Amino acid sequence: MKTAIIIPSKNEKDYLPLLLNSIEEQTYKNYIVIVADAFSTDNTREIVKNYGHILIDGGMPSEARNYGAIEAVKQNCDLLMFIDADIVMPNSKFLEKAVKEFKKRNLDVAGTFQKPFVVSDNGIKHSSNLSYNAIYSVANMSMKMLQWTKKPMFHVCMLATPEAHALIGGFKAVEYGEDSLYATEAAQLGLKFRMLKTVKKVWISPRRFKEKGLVQSGTVYFLYNTLMGRRFAYGESSRSYF
What we know:
Elements: E1 3-9, H1 16-24, E2 31-37, H2 44-51, E3 54-57, H3 61-74, E4 79-83, E5 87-88, H4 94-104, E6 109-111, E7 114-120, E8 123-126, H5 130-146, E9 157-160, H6 162-168, H7 178-188, E10 193-195, E11 202-204, H8 207-212, H9 214-227
Parallel strand pairs: 1-2, 1-4, 2-3, 6-10, 7-11
Antiparallel strand pairs: 4-9, 5-11, 6-9, 7-8
C-alpha cells in the first residue's frame, strides 16, 4: 500500500528532524511524506525541502491534515497516516507493521498508543516524569477501552483509507479533540476502527504540558478522556500551534 505520511507543522525546527529521521530509518519504503506547514517563521520549510519531501501550505491542525489528504489522493496513495510533528516512530519496523496489520484486519481507520520522550545527549529516551507517564497511561487505557464503542478516541498518529477520510468529511475545525471526533464519526458511520496491536507505542513530546502546565493540560486530558467530550472547548490558544 502506497502510504502518505501527513505532518502538520508550524515552527517545528527542533522536533521535525527527529520525526523525519525516524521515517528515513523505516524498512517499509512505499511511502511519501507530505508536510502541510502553517507558514513557519523558522527554518521548518527549509528542513522539509532539504529532506526532499513534499511541502504544501497548511493551517490549523485539522486544515493541514485535510490539505495533506488532498495531496495524497493526487499522489495515488492507498493509505493516509496523520502524524504530529513532535512524534517519533519507535523503531525501524513501525511503518511496516502498521501497514501490514491495517491491511490484514481490513481496517478503515486506526490509532496507535504513545509514551513520552525527552531528548538527551545520547538521543531520545523514555521520560521518567511520573506525571507525564500517568497522563499518557490514562490516554492509552481510554483509547484501548473505547475502541469497541461508538465513541472511540485517538490522536497524534492515526491511519485511514482515503475512502474513509472522504466519508467522514475530513477533520473538523473544532477547538479541541478534532482527532477523536474523527474516530467517533468513523465508528458512527459504520467504518471499522481499531487501535493497532502489533506496533510499539510512538514516542511523543510532553511539551504541551511543559508549556501550558500540568494542572491545566492534565485537567483537560482527564475531562476529555473520562467524559468523552468530542467538542471540548479549551480556548483558542490550545490548538493554535503551540
